[in-house]
Predict the 3D structure of the following.
Amino acid sequence: MIRLLQNMLRPCRGLPTTVYVQVVCSLINNIGGISKLFLPLYLREHYDVSYAHIGMMMGAYGAGSLIGSMAVS
């Protein structure tokens, strides 16, 4: 398994440091995006928020993301 990983990473050796920074930052960003999938479950289980309120919050988040992406363009 280690040997396979080493063979896969061999072509990436010697890349500039900025490439590695970009990869790590992208990984952190994607982890944050995945956490939004579990936010409704957390709110329901730990704070006993109703499904209607969770739906409104997630809808507001989606609308804000849509408006924000259009404002940047």
Observations:
- The two ends are 44 Å apart (CA to CA).
- Residues 16-72 form one domain.
- The chain has three helices and no strands.
- The chain has a mean pLDDT of 91.
